[in-house]
Amino acid sequence: MLARYASDPDRSRGRRHPEPPAPTRTAYQRDRDRIVHSTAFRRLVYKTQVFLNHEGDLFRTRLTHSLEVAQLGRSIARSLGLNEDLVEAIALAHDLGHTPFGHAGQDALDDCMRPWGGFEHNLQSLRVVDALEERYPAFDGLNLSFETREGILKHCSRANAQRLEANEPGGVGRRFLDRTQPGLEAQLCNLADEIAYNAHDIDDGVRSGLLAVEQLDEVPLFARFRDEAVREHASVQGRRLLYEAIRRMLSAQVYDVIDATRAAIAAAGIDDVDAARRAGPLVRFSASMQAESAALKRFLFANLYRHPQVVETTGHAKQVVRELFMAYAEAPGEMGGGFDRRPERPRAIADYIAGMTDRFAAREHERLTGRRLWP
Ligand code: MG
C-alpha cells in the first residue's frame, strides 16, 4: 500500500548501533514503541503547551498535543501512501525536548546556556532519543532509525548542524548544510504540528476566557466554517458550535494538504524517497489555504500568545528556570539522577532542567529558593 516515494522500513539507513530486526515489527513500529515506553514521553503529560499545567485540567499538554499531531499525520499519510508508522513515531517524539513552561522555559534556558552553545528544544528532542534516555545496556538513548531521527530534527542552526556532522558524518545534521529536505513523512509531521496547534489553541484560548468567540470573526478560515455550521444547524451555539467549526476547519486543511501535496509530488515527478529529499518542500497547503493558515497564526500570536495574562505567567516561568540554573550551578549536588557527576556541567544542568515537568520545576524552585511563585 506504500507509495514509491514513501519511506520503506526495509530500506532504512538503519540505527547507529546495529541491532537484529524485530520478528514481528518493522523498524519504524519499533521506534514508535520505544518512544511510547520512554521516560521523556511520560513527562509530556505534565508539560505546558500554551497554558501552564496548573491552570486547568482540560487544556492541551505536550502529550495530548503530540497525540493530536500523530492523529492528523497518520490520517494524511494514509491518503498519500506514506508510512504511517514513521509519521506516528516522529509525531510522538517531536516535542520530547521541550523544557517545562513551554517556550518561556526554552527561552530562559537558552539565555542561561548562551556561553555554552545555547539551548534549542528541537535539538534537545534529538538529544533525548540519542543520548539521554537510559534504558538499554549496550547504548545510550533509544537507538532509533535514521528516518525517525531525521524527522525529529526539524530545524537546526548551521553551527549545530556542523557539530552534529562532526559526530556523525553524513548523518541527520547533513541536510542543513546541504540545504536538502527530509523524507516526506518528516515534512508531513511539520505541517501536522502546525495544523494541530492552530486548531487546539483556538479551543484552549476560548476555554480559558482569553479569547472571545466574537474575536474569531476576523479569522476568515474559522469564520467561514462557523457560518457554514450555523447554516446547516440553525440552533447550534456555544461549545458545540465552536467544536463543529474547528472540526470543519481541520477537515478542510487535511483535504487541502492531501490534494496540494499529491499535485506537488506529481508535478516534480518524484518516485523515490531520495528524489523527494532533493526536491524542495513537497508536503504543503495550496496557496490560498497557506494564506488563511498564516492569518490564523498571526491572530493567535497577537491575541493569545501575547495576551497580558499569558505574558505574566511567562515572566514567572522564566524566573523559575533562571533561578534553578543558578542554584544547580552553585550546588550541583542538588541535582538528582547522577546529573552532578556528568561531564560538561552547564550542559548537564540544562539537560536536567529541560527534562523536568512543570510541577517538578516549580517544587524544586520552591525547595531551593524558599519562594513560591504560583499557588
Ligand atoms: Mg509540536
Compact description:
This protein is mainly α and 375 residues long. Helix content is 61%, strand content 0%. It has helices spanning 27-36, 39-43, 62-80, 84-93, 102-112, 121-132, 146-152, 158-167, 174-178, 184-208, 220-232, 238-268, 273-278, 287-305, 308-330, 345-354, 358-369.
Query: Which percent band covers the strand fraction?
Result: under 5%
- Calculate Rg over CA atoms: 21 Å
Q: What is the chain-wise order of helices and strands?
A: HHHHHHHHHHHHHHHHH
Number of helices: 17
Count of domains: 2
Structural commentary:
This protein is mostly helical and 375 residues long. The protein has two domains: 28-181 and 312-369, Hypothetical protein af1432 (Orthogonal Bundle), CATH 1.10.3210; 184-308, no CATH class. The chain has helices spanning 27-36, 39-43, 62-80, 84-93, 102-112, 121-132, 146-152, 158-167, 174-178, 184-208, 220-232, 238-268, 273-278, 287-305, 308-330, 345-354, 358-369. The longest helix is centred in the last third of the chain and has 31 residues, at 238-268. The structure holds magnesium ion. The site of magnesium ion has 4 residues, from loops.
What are the key terms here?
mainly alpha; binds magnesium ion
List the SSEs and their pairings.
Layout: H1 27-36, H2 39-43, H3 62-80, H4 84-93, H5 102-112, H6 121-132, H7 146-152, H8 158-167, H9 174-178, H10 184-208, H11 220-232, H12 238-268, H13 273-278, H14 287-305, H15 308-330, H16 345-354, H17 358-369
Helix pairs in contact: 1-4, 3-4, 3-10, 3-12, 4-7, 4-10, 5-15, 7-10, 10-12, 10-14, 11-12, 15-16, 15-17
This protein binds magnesium ion.
